[in-house]
Amino acid sequence: MEGGAPGGLANLNVDPRFVDPGEARDLHLAEGSPCVDAALLSNGTHDLDRARRSGVRDIGADEPRRTAATAPPTA
Fold first, then answer.
1. How far does Cα 52 stand from its chain's mean position?
2. Residue 49 sits in which domain range?
3. d(CA 10, CA 1)
4. Quick check: 26 and 33 in contact, CB under 8 A?
5. Which of 17, 20, 51, 72 could, after both became Cys, cross-link 24 (CB 3.0–4.6 A)?
6. Overall number of domains in the chain
7. Backbone phi, psi, residue 68, to 5°
8. Sequential DSSP letters for 17-40
9. C-alpha 69: how far from its chain's center?
């Protein structure tokens, strides 16, 4: 949300660092995005790609594309 929301919880006024928001419209969060693991509330069990959300949730509708090296540990 540009400019943030006054008094809103977990609203960030920063570049979310999408992979490629331009022509490719890849709105996955890029590595190092300040939105990764930043959600205070649960926002569903799956993202837009139907990938299961686990651990600390990210802000946004699409989780980062994670490889085995960057995936959170499973219990």
1. 13
2. 15-65
3. 11
4. no
5. 20
6. 1
7. -60, -35
8. -EEE-STT-EEEEPTT-TTTT--S
9. 18
